[in-house]
Structures are given as C-alpha cells and as structure tokens.
Structure prediction request, 140 residues.
Amino acid sequence: MSNPNKENTVESNVAAQWTAKWRETCPDNCKAFLVPAVDLIEVLNEMGLIGDKAAAKAQKRASKNKLDVRAYMAIGAEPGEKVEEKLLIVGTQEIDGVYRDIINGEVDGKSAGLGDGSNSGIYDFTLPCPTACDDQSELN
Prediction:
C-alpha cells in the first residue's frame, strides 16, 4: 500500500536530527511512546472513520503481525516554519520481543514485507498544544 499523503512524511535523517534535539533539550523526559495499533484502530472505529467489520479485521491483522505504533518526541521545523515540539509517528513490528521501527519499508535493514517502502514511513502530522488545544477538555 502506498502513501497518498507523502507531504506528511519526514526523511529519516531529518527525523533523526529532530529526535536528537529533543533528547538534548529534554534529557530527563521520555523519548517516545509505544501505542498498541489495536487501540488506534478502536479510536478510528469510535470516531466512525472505519466500520466495525473493517476495525475487527485490521485489529486481527495488527495482532497477528505484531504491529504497533511508536510516537517519538522531537523538536524541529520544516524550512520556513517556526521551530516547535513535534510528535513523529512510525509503525513498528515485534521481533524477538522488541518492537522495531519500520523505516523506509525496512526493519533493521531488512524488508518488513509491509507497504511498498516508497517513503520514509516517518510521519509528522501532529499539531502541538498550545496552540491546537481544546480549552473545554478536562484533560487540558
């Protein structure tokens, strides 16, 4: 499956710089979060973006292939944009008990056998809070 939204991908060398900047700036903070893919699928299902049948099928495939998502903390900017905190998203696949990042269609230099590897697989489509906050949320 190819990615029609390549404008939301970040080249791996740029992503490495942004995550290094986070670790340098915030050395005592966490670096990333591992998010179960089945939970993300359930959120999309609750939002009505995918139906129950599709969600169940996707959750089964994610569980069978041991797929999750990792969200890395980062600091950086696209050319001409303001430097800000970012959340870089990558797919992962569990190998020998460790969830390994899928970057450029590869896990540890070997084909992941998922997607077509035509882009980095590192996504930056988040907006930080502030400014993209819900001021009515009890979580804010």
